[in-house]
Structure formats: C-alpha cells, structure tokens
Write a structure and sequence with these properties.
Length: about 325
C-alpha cells in the first residue's frame, strides 16, 4: 500500500498496473456514515506489457475491500467490485456485498448493491446512488503525498511532493457505519484476476507502505496471501529490516514488527479517524510517520503537506490532472 509499485521487483502485480493497489482509506462522515476508498492503477506506473490507457480497470477482475468484524484476521464481510467493458474505453461497475467465508471469486451468493455504475474518465465525478449507498469509480487526483525523490536520494527529504500531479483510479463507497458493525473492525483490500488456472490474487494490503520490507519471492508470497491471518510468518523479515534501517535492538525490532502485522487497517466507525489509531484520512501523513518509524526517528527534512484539490463532499478526491 502507498508504494505504487506492488510487484516483487517494484513493478505492477501480474504485469498489469490496473491491479496495483496504491492506498486504502477509511473515515467517518456525517450522519453515522463511513467512507471507504480503494485506489489502484497509479498513473506513474511503467507498464509496457499490458497497455491500460483505454480501460481504467481490468475487465472481469475483482477489486475488494475485506472486513474482519471479530478480530481473527479473516474476512466476515466483503465489498467486491467487478468491471465490464462497453467498448471505446467505457466501463461500468457492479458492487456486491458478500458475507461469511467464501472462496476467492465466489460471487453468486453476494448481494448486488450497485449495478451498471458508469466509470468516470473525465473531470466530472459521476456518482451512483443505490438505497443507503453512494458509489463512485474512475480516474481521480492521487491524494497520496510523499517526497519520493528524496527517498531514493538516500532519504535526503526536501519536502517536494512527487505525487502532486499524479492520478489514480478510485473506488469510493459511502455506506451506513452500522453496515460495518458496532465496534472496531479490520480492513484490507485485494485485487484478483481469473486465469486459465482459476482465480489468482494479484495484490493485497491494509496498512500503508508495508511492502517496503519485502522483496522478490517474499513479496510475492505476501501479496498473494488471501487472508492476513498468517502474516506472523513475515515478522522475522520485518524485524530484520527494522534492525538494519533503524538501528533497533533485536527485541525492539521484533516488538515493532508484531505491531505492524497482520497487515490490517484498524477502523472504528464511531471514532474520529486518524492513522494509525483508527482508520485513515486523506490528509494523514502516513509516509512521514512511516519513515520516522523505519529510521527510528533519524529521518530529516521537510515533509510535503496534504493536497489542496481534495473535495469536502463525495467522492472527496479531486479531479484527475490528465
């Protein structure tokens, strides 16, 4: 999450930027309602194998926000979005609500919440209303802010925001908070596509920037794990990186790694959102906080602020730049 290049070698998962999860957000709004935002398909992705400019989302693929309501790191509720192609780059979306344990790709038992919602490709945000839900899908301005050039320059941060003019493809859902439960829940997102061998998960994550700790086969194993219930197998890798990058003692690194895993975004719909305590707002400086944690407080330099094109109403993300 927030890495904008999820694959094992900092590429797009399965060679398709449309399956690349960039960020997951969750925050309450007025009237005991919640906003869930899943962003994919970063405009800065280099994707020579599968051109994606005509259709923002991969037709037939699954884009899901998964919700654990009882603290066992296994989803009890899933909001699953699937896109169809109408030709000439135009697409529509179908949103389903699936409850209980279900194998990847099992959509038949899900309740259709939104059907044939048009995907926005221009500046105007086309919003679909269905019962107690609002839904949007399409290109938007990327709300993530971070001095990426400073990171690749030995963490010499200057405050320049690499993402100030970048776009993503967003799915934004407004729903009654009661639909998530009456207490804290755990959230994560995943994408999957259907292959000749069946459904295959491409990407997943809940907390921002977690994949920074992993590379190669370990990252592939992390991203394709369908549920975060077994994320404790990555604690050692996380702890090793924390020792190396932050100079933590082995005990400190192990304790911090156990706080970062399982890879779940905790969210209490009945409290004010502020990462990492509960949920994540579009204005939370997750990158600044992450690298302060990673380097054990040694990070220096100014941080860019939240983007000025955010909206104060649904779908909250600003219009796309391109």
């Amino acid at each position: 999450m927030s890495h904008h290049a999820s694959g094992p070698n900092f590429s797009s998962p399965r060679g398709d930027a449309r399956l690349d999860i960039t960020d997951l957000y969750a925050f309450p709004t007025t009237g005991d309602r919640s906003i869930l935002v899943l962003n994919v398909h970063p405009s800065m992705a280099v994707n020579p194998t599968r051109p994606t400019t005509r259709e923002p989302f991969a037709p037939g693929a699954l884009y899901e926000i998964r919700i654990d309501t009882d603290g066992n790191s296994i989803a009890d509720i899933c909001y699953s979005v699937q896109f169809s192609s109408r030709g000439d780059g135009k697409q529509t979306a179908t949103l389903r609500r699936i409850t209980g344990a279900a194998p990847l790709g099992a959509l038949e038992g899900g309740e259709v919440i939104v059907e044939d919602a048009p995907v926005s490709t221009g500046e105007e945000a086309v919003v679909k209303t269905a019962a107690d839900y609002l839904f949007f899908a399409g290109w938007r301005s990327d709300p993530f802010f971070f001095d990426a050039d400073g990171f690749f320059n030995g963490m010499q941060f200057t405050g320049a925001d690499f993402f100030a003019d970048k776009d993503v493809c967003s799915m934004v859902l407004e729903l009654p908070s009661a639909a998530l439960g009456l207490k804290q829940v755990g959230l994560w997102a995943r994408t999957a596509e259907k292959t000749a061998e069946g459904w295959t998960q491409a990407d997943r994550g809940g907390r921002p920037l977690q994949a920074v700790f992993l590379a190669g086969e370990q990252r592939e194993a992390y991203l394709t794990a369908e549920e975060p219930v077994n994320d404790d197998r990555f604690v050692g890798v996380f702890a090793h990186e924390l020792e190396h990058s932050g100079g933590y003692s082995s005990q400190e690194a192990l304790a911090l790694a156990n706080k970062l895993l399982p890879d779940i975004l905790l969210y209490d719909p009945w409290r004010r959102a502020s990462f990492p305590h509960t949920g994540r707002r579009l204005t939370d400086d997750v990158a600044g906080d992450f690298f302060k944690m990673l380097t054990n407080g040694k990070i220096a330099g100014e941080r860019p602020g939240a983007h000025g094109d955010l909206l104060n109403q649904f779908p909250y993300l600003g219009p796309p730049h391109n």
